[in-house]
Design goal:
Helices cover 39% and strands 22% of the residues. The chain is an alpha/beta fold and 232 residues long. The protein is elongated and about 50 Å long. About 3% of the residues have low confidence.
Length: 232
């Protein structure tokens, strides 16, 4: 039996919450709502959603802090942030904290739906995924479980975009990939190749896998071109 996709909408604007709940319910999703971070935590401890749609600007605890909490306690939940057009810094920080994607307010419902669908698709485990691991510096990436482990065997949390980038790099060892090639093969064509988001994610990945992130030996920058995974 098919299990309905669970969505949690967190926003302090009742009208927007109502619109989003009605829209995603019409698509067959099970939607729960929260007006603040405290309510969101209660819902997530009860049953972690497949994806959370979070407003960054909320009274009290903001969406950035909640993003960090979700990534620590519900690593399998996808996160789509709602930001304003001027919130470039918040957007960058949100991606740094582990959000999978963002949509700027005001937004078209179809765009938000596409972002959510993309995050859900990237977090689905392919039935034919190989079970072997790929070495990234001091870490091992298990392609079948979509999990990254350190030298001690402890799991290192990954966002879906981070996993996609590691998978693409592992498929192209010792080969320079341009930003548009990375985005294309990771199925993120909707991202702008000049957007800093891909560079930020590479930076986050280096912090997780490189012995010295300031002098990367695993994911190297090829100036003016792109990135290269140096396979052992």
């Amino acid at each position: 039996m098919h299990t309905p996709t669970k969505v949690l909408v967190v926003d302090d604007e009742p009208e927007l919450v109502e619109v989003l709940q009605e829209h995603f319910c019409s698509l067959g999703y099970v939607v729960r709502t929260a007006a603040n971070a405290m309510q969101a935590r209660v819902h997530m401890m009860d049953a972690a959603p497949d994806v959370a749609i979070l407003d960054i600007r909320m009274p009290g605890e903001d969406g950035l802090s909640l993003t960090r909490w979700i990534r620590e306690h519900c690593p399998d939940t996808g996160i789509v942030m709602l930001t304003t057009a001027a919130d470039v810094i918040d957007r960058v920080v949100g991606l740094e904290m582990g959000a999978d994607d963002y949509v700027g307010k005001p937004f078209d419902l179809r765009e938000l739906q596409a972002r959510v669908t993309s995050v859900l698709r990237r977090r689905q485990l392919p039935a034919d995924a190989p079970a072997d691991g790929v070495t990234f510096g001091r870490c091992v990436l298990n392609l079948s479980t979509r999990k990254l482990f350190d030298a001690k065997g402890e799991e290192i949390p990954l966002t879906s975009m981070e996993f996609d980038l590691l998978r693409v790099l592992s498929d192209n060892p010792n080969r320079v990939l341009k930003r548009d090639q990375l985005l294309d093969q990771a199925h993120h064509k909707d991202w702008d190749v000049f957007d800093r988001s891909i560079d930020l994610r590479i930076m986050r990945l280096r912090r997780k896998i490189e012995p010295d992130p300031q002098k990367p030996d695993v994911i190297k920058t090829v100036r003016g071109v792109g990135y290269m995974y140096v396979s052992p």
